[in-house]
Amino acid sequence: MSVALPAGIAILGPTGCGKSALAMQLAAQLPVEIISVDSAQVYRGMDIGTAKPTPAERLAVPHHLIDIREPEQAYSAGQFRADVQDLLPRIAARGRVPLLVGGTMLYFRALFRGIADLPTADPLLRARIDASAAQKGWPALHAELAAVDPAAAARIHPNDAQRIQRALEITALSGRALDELWVQEDSYSFEGWRVCVLEPQDRTRLHDLIGQRLEAMVAAGFVDEVRRLMARATLSEKSHTMRLVGYRQLAAYVAGHDSLQGAVEKAAAATRQLAKRQLTWLRGQNLLPSSAKVLRVDPFDDTARLRILRVLSQAQAPA
Question: Taking the CB of residue 78, how many other CB atoms lie within 10 A of it?
Answer without folding.
Answer: 13
